[in-house]
Amino acid sequence: MRQTKYFEAYLDDFTTIVIYMSKQSYEGCSRFFYLQDEKGELEELTIQMVEPTSKNYNKYTCTSKKRIELGKRYHVLHEFARRCVLKTGYITKMDEFDELYAYDKDYLGAVDSKEKTTFKIWAPTATNVHLCLENKSYVMERKERGIFELTIKGNLEKQCYHYYVRVDGNWISCQDPYGKSSLANSKYSIIVNEERFMNKKADLPPLEKYTDAIIYEMNVRDFTAQNLNHDFRHSKQFLGVVEENEQTRTKEIGFSYLKKLGVTHVQLMPVLDFASIDENHPEVFYNWGYDPAQFMTLEGSYSSDPNDPYARIEEFKTMVDEFHKAGIRVILDVVFNHVFELEDMCLEKLVPNYFFQMNQKGYFSNGSWCGNDFDSMRKMARKYLIDCCTYLMKMYQVDGFRFDLMGILDVETMNQIQKECEKIDPNVMIYGEGWNMPSFLDQSLRATIANGDKISRIGQFSDRFRDVVKGKTNMEEIYQKGFCAGNTDEIEVMKDVLSASVTNQYADQYFVNPSNAINYVECHDNQTCWDKLKECCKEDTREKRIMRHEMCIAAVLFAQGVPFLHSGQEFARTKYGKPNTYNSKDDINWINWDRKNTYEMIVNYTKDCIELRKQHACLRYATKEEVQKNVHFSDIEGKCLAYYTKDDTEELMIFFNPCDREFNYSFDHTRQLLFYNGKVDNEIVNGYLKIQPLSVIVLKKEL
What we know:
- The chain has 703 residues and is of the alpha+beta class.
- It folds into 4 domains: 7-88, Immunoglobulin-like (Sandwich); 98-174, Sandwich (Immunoglobulin-like); 210-310 and 319-377 and 399-619, TIM Barrel (Alpha-Beta Barrel), CATH 3.20.20; 631-702, Golgi alpha-mannosidase II (Immunoglobulin-like, Sandwich), CATH 2.60.40.
- The strands form 5 sheets. An 8-stranded mixed sheet has the order 4-3-7-8-1-2-6-5, with no helix packed on it.
- A hairpin with a 5-residue loop joins strand 3 (33-36) and strand 4.
- Helix 8 (379-396) runs parallel beside helix 9 and helix 10 (463-469) crosses helix 11.
- The radius of gyration is 29 Å and the shape is elongated.
């Protein structure tokens, strides 16, 4: 942030220096300025413009006759002989900066073998970089394009290191942005021998298209935090997620339960190192983890020992391997749009103003509402995100990524991530929150739903599906009902979202293909679906609310697009009416396994919907053309929705009746009844159907 000291100077271009003088010091006036280099030589700057600012400063735009060389120390002096350090300014946002310094070769960081370790760090604006390894300090050599490099012989595996860097006249300590592990609370980076952890990935059935996936969002801590009966030995940890023992099998909870649910993918809420938990005392605070500290290091509070840098790696890999053995793929929820504290982030320390969106006035973009937005348009920032994703896929064999606030990032970066990840695994899934956030990035470049045609291989969450099916989620609109909550005025839009909004009939949101539409009614944000229905359908009995909740689940699983479930949704998860419970303690957020038994009817209903979706390909079209050809709708009295989808062998007729009254429907020929508020076996319906209140019905006709 500029204009905080009496006298400041910033390098905004290779010959342009912007100077701020507070009017509280010499009335903010100076007739001339000098630039002083490391040798003490002075050059008088040319003042091009003087203008007052709103913060009681005078701003001087000056130019130098010579190009200023980065990696050197400079000071600026005003006419009263006071001096200040020439700091890195807007110059890091210049295209020429990337042309001169962007490094497109191999990974950076510490590359370890038994014989030696090579350290590489990108810091073109730094004057000096020292490697601090255990208790020794080593001077690193500046190489091409702002790379500092050093090779040390010997086996350094598991040793601690950090960098001591001189930037803008100050010596600062920072972690390695490419660090692969840490001690507790992000203390130091750790040299990791990656070869030790490489293993063969378990065989998984091919994922022919995104719409074949059924995604299940879960939080590592929540999944086993309710451990009142000591069912989980590794409660709240990576190993707890896949733990099976006599209790979990008998009670059918935890992993023993999840394996039988039928989902194809789990989406893990953030598991990369985040800053809001004391890893030595994880019981003190609770947090979802959307406050990144490191992008390649796993969260230590989820390991058995946060001070053993290999424990988190080994245990996370074990968890992923067990998922794969069960035929379930793993997607990581990655938070690349912002960081927890900008000033503490190693990327910002190493190359000020480069990795985060900033304007020429020195203000940082705040579209994420976190005080900083990642600048994926810069070449090394883009490379960093690509390197993070490809590293996580190779090291941990994960199967995809969900991007938090993806609209902060740009379309080209997202496309390159998709391309590079597909080289590693053609079945990779990439999707994210395509909200149009008010960042400094031009709207035409944002990875948003509105720009979906520019990122056509990447999925986007359909908040429109959520709001149409169950109703608005904002607390001020919590009483507004969606179609399944009884608002039949939404029936035409309901038809659109069931077809994955691929017809471009509604300008506010549409998708290129069904594979782009991530359909959901509940995720970690906002009230759970059960809690929302409790608020907006207060007149309903508990039995009716169960039926509406089931209808919402059926809408997700029968709609064209990619179905997404939140863990516990299938047994009426409640957070006691609280909306965003990111720091609301375990007893609010944990998976209450007792509810699985209480609401067993919803669990079975969900399993039936999953099985039906898997059995019928006409529920899983991948392209817009297939939907337009094979999907159509009608309704009864504008209240009860009829959804038809067919392929070459069969046609399904699906009814959604959100009303408190029944409807009658007549049709030609016989139909097989597959589902009537749950799976039905071998029942034939001949020309007439009575549609009971709050019902979902699926009929099949052979073609």
